[in-house]
C-alpha cells in the first residue's frame, strides 16, 4: 500500500516528508515509515508530559498484542511499532490499525496522560505549527522554525473534517435514483425480450456506485454493504414484478406453475439476476475508491 493511501485510510494528514499526523480522541499521533527487521513498517509516536512507567507499557502491550504492535518508550515518547510490512498492507489491516490507535488513546485518556502544548523551540504557548524531528511531531510556532531549517512543518492541529451529512444525503439520493435509471434497460428488456433481461441487472450496481461517487461522500466498507443491499433489493423487486407479469399472462399462479418449465425458467431468472448483480458490484467497484477524507 502506498503511504498516502495508508494515511488516508487512517484519516491522517501527510507531512511534507513521508511522515503524517493524525488526531485520535484529541491525542496527536505521528506516523512515519521505519524499518523493522527487513521490512518498512508503520511507526506511531506521541510525546507525553507524564512519565511512562514500565508497568503501564506492559499493560498497553497486552492490549495491543492482538494487533501485532510492539510498544516502546523512549524519553517519554510512546512508540508503537506495527509488525506488518507497509508495502503488503491490505486496506482491512490499515483499518484495524485505527482501532489499535483508538484503543491506545482510550488507555491514555483513562490514565490522564497529556501531550506537550508549548513550543518545542522557544517554550512559549500559542503554537500554530508542528516541528517534525527524529520521528516525532511537536507543537511549535511557525515563526520559530527558520532557526531549524532541516525540520518539516505542518499546520497546527485542526480536527479533521467530520463526515459531511449533506454529501451523505446527496450520495444516497443520487445512488438510489441512478440505480433506478440504470435498471431501465432491464425493465424494457423484461417487457419486450424477457429471455435476456436478467443479464442487464448488472447495471443496477453501476448506477448506485456512480451516484455515490458523484455525491462525494466518505466511502468505506459500510458504503459497499449499503450498495449491495440497495442493488439486490431493486433487482429482486424487478424480477418479482417480471414474474408477476408472466403469471398474469398465463391466467394465474396455478396454471403458470402447472408447467414445470415455467418453474425452472423462474428459478433460472432469479439465479442469473442475482449473479448479474454480484458481478456488477465486483466489476464496477473500482470506480469508487475508498475515500475517508
Ligand atoms: Zn516558539
Strand content: 15-25%
Please provide the count of β strands.
9
Mean pLDDT equals 88
Q: Number of helical runs?
A: 9
CATH fold label of the largest domain: Yope Regulator, Chain: A
Overall geometry: elongated
Task: Estimate nothing, just give the exact number of structural domains.
Answer: 2
Q: Which runs of at least 5 residues are low in confidence (pLDDT < 50)?
A: 157-161
Describe what you observe in this structure:
- The structure is a single chain.
- This protein is of the alpha+beta class.
- It has two domains: 3-155, 2-Layer Sandwich (Yope Regulator, Chain: A); 165-287, no CATH class.
- 47% of the residues lie in helices and 18% in strands.
- The protein contains nine helices and nine strands.
- The chain has helices at residues 3-9, 54-64, 91-110, 165-181, 184-192, 203-215, 221-249, 253-258, 260-284, and strands spanning 13-14, 20-24, 27-36, 39-47, 69-74, 77-82, 129-133, 136-140, 152-155.
- It has a six-stranded antiparallel sheet with strand order 1-2-3-4-6-5.
- A hairpin with a 2-residue loop joins strand 2 and strand 3 (27-36).
- Helix 4 (165-181) runs parallel beside helix 7 (221-249) and helix 6 (203-215) runs antiparallel to helix 7.
- The longest helix is centred in the last third of the chain and has 29 residues, at 221-249.
- The protein is elongated, with a radius of gyration of 27 Å.
- The relative contact order is 0.10.
- Mean pLDDT is 88; it is low at 157-161.
- The site of zinc ion has 7 residues, from loops.
- Zinc ion (ZN) is lined by residues 119, 121-122, 124, 140-141, 144.
